[in-house]
Amino acid sequence: MTRHDATPSQGERLLQTHLGTSERADAFYGRQVHPYLTAAMCDFVRRQSMVFLSTADARGHCDATFRAGPPGFVTVLDDRTLAYPEYRGNGVLASAGNITENPHIGLLFMDFTHDHVGLHVNGSAQLLSDEQLRAGSPWLPADTAPGRHPVLWTLITVHEAYVHCSKHIPHLEPAPRPLGAPGTRRRDADYFTEPAPAPVTSGPGPNLVPTGREASDHAYATPPTHHLTGSDAPIEPR
Hints:
Blueprint: H1 10-19, H2 22-32, H3 39-47, E1 50-56, E2 62-68, E3 75-78, E4 81-86, H4 94-101, E5 104-110, E6 118-128, H5 130-136, E7 152-164, H6 188-191, H7 212-219
Antiparallel strand pairs: 1-2, 1-5, 3-4, 4-7, 5-6, 6-7
């Protein structure tokens, strides 16, 4: 069985022993897990236009995210090295920030259209400027995303790469993004935020109907003597 610093973990071994899957796991490690990218894996990465990636900070707090670009935007530098560009985004830099504390990174490439298979790549990452990466790899394409310039590159040293089976990968057909009518969708910055609270109107609140013990007490309470009419009536919220 191929051995390297990433597989198998102690936790994997403990659970394999507990559940009786050690023999099956050994067969998987020996046949599927590689400490480098095979030729077929390199070709697969060059065809992909998206990748899911995970990082964690020094405390082990994880972050999962998504990157996309033209096919091959994740560049295969050699069979043990990948690189992908970081563009100007929302300014948070969650993944890059984690990498400055903890170099471990996991990538998952998924083919939803043709072969319905996935590729896991785990390794260690470092951040380089565009100039630093091109100094060692001058053949890198100059315009990986037309009109955009990388502010950083994430350089990944591969520790292990292995298949993600096709059994439950859905089939998705590439299609142009539909153009929705203006105003039918909240903009990204507001999509998951809480709506603004309704303005508080002056004057008495709504006439609440009491229930339970409160209703019993209310039955013997002195009825209100003020009735709202005309301009004193409460305004319905818009």
